[in-house]
Amino acid sequence: MKIPFYKPLLAATSAAILASCGSSAPAIVSTPIANIDTIPLKVTALTDAQFKNWPEADLIYDTIPGMSVDRAYSEIIKNQKGKKVIVAVIDSGTDIEHEDLKNVIWTNEDEIPGNGIDDDNNGYIDDVHGWNFLGDAVDENLEFVRIYKKLKPKYEGKSASDISEANRQEFILFKDAEAEYNKKLTEAQQNLAQYQQIKSQLVAAHQAVSSQLGKEDYTMDELKAMQATAQPLSQYKAMLLQIQQNVNENIPKAIEELDGALDYYSDQVKVNLNPDLNGREIVGDNPDDLNDRNYGNNNVMGPEADKKNIKHGTHVAGIIAAQRNNGIGMNGVAQNVEIMAVRAVPNGDEYDKDIALAIRYAVDNGAKVINTSFGKYFSTHPDWVRDAIKYAADHDVLIVNAAGNESLNLDEKMVYPNDQTPDNPVEISDNFLTVGALNYDYGAKLVANFSNYGKKNVDVFAPGNKIWSTTPNNEYEYLQGTSMASPEVAGIAAMIRSYFPKLTAPQVKKIIMDSGLPVQANVIVGGDRLNTQEFSELSTSGKIANLYNALILASKVSK
Known about the structure:
This is S8 family serine peptidase. By secondary structure, this protein is α/β, with parallel strands linked by helices. It is 35% helix and 13% strand.
């Protein structure tokens, strides 16, 4: 389900960068430096400009834990072009008309648009920019709700003693899904009521203070200086000061973000957790039959005119490849990239069938990197997806995957998709890279408080909190999540594959992990100040992904 961060290790003080004649691959000579834990912490707050660009920052130069993207372009890439790389974004859909994306969208040159014929015989008619595996479907249940309502007539009210050995595993699945449904519905209803109450109090306080100050967009200094001795104004002042200090936003922005939380929990109650919803009906296929493949359409932006539900996929696409240096919007991590839009993630949990077919579609149509910014904790056909991951491995395609946003240790909790099975911790392939999310604070708060982690099941961390990127209708917005961290790393992967095209998917994965910046310090996990762990123990690499380092190491490996 979609959810509502240096000095590079291999850099030298003065790296010699040599362009090899007749090759797109930059040859790089450098000397490794010591660890980065001696870097001083940033003592000043980030400016608006720094927030919008922080994933591209360099830790040594900027004291911000970005991926040294700007430095990589200025010192290594320069004017070298590289090879065109197709990156598939399997997501909610992508606004292919966006001003900052329209020039980087993949076009299937073997397909004649609009003639109603499968010209390239790939099984998909008029798939000019990708494929929409959801058709006109938008809203969907979470997977455990689908399991619960499907098995409820068979097992409701029964105990383990009533179940035959042949049905025992299915009964256990039902009971797990039922427990999760009851738990999540209660939580969503309680959170919705709580946020409604908070908003009511916040709006009342903001209106009173705005009236007193004669303005709505007041600063924290103005709020501190406001005279408020009588109640309730004194109480309102204290409340608003606390909010501004905690969320680092002005009050109108805080109210806007609160509205987003209300929309999220309302959506959960009315849609994702609603057992009466049948979101799949409009698609017309059997989601439990992998061979039933004649469904979907070529509308990668989905059926909604306002493009509301493709915000997530559009944001992800922009992080990877928003057109660089075009004087508008923002810069994606990678240049010389084409985005293949594959719509397979609804407003709810994705179907295993759609994801398996989406991966295979991307592989068959030329993608060398696939970004999968989604996930769930129940799966009915995980083998279909794992087979697709192995299919991608067989065709030298790297999959970059979001770790998830529940502050969970993935070594203890299975998430889907993944490259392991519950009874076997050995990876099924070496082309699957899982990414956790970083915060913009270098120090104890380095790990985003929502990010999942795991020494065995998360490979690397990258910027994922307060990430500025493209949203539908030529707009831009901050979003957060491991969904944002994954495309940051997908962008690095695309750059490696562009400039060093002979490197294999497993080599690219290893380079990204090995070239990251190692952090030995303790960090807060899950936003709980009482839970601190060594950053090096939160992922397999124990490192922060870094484009500058990755290009240096890729140059050495490719020789």
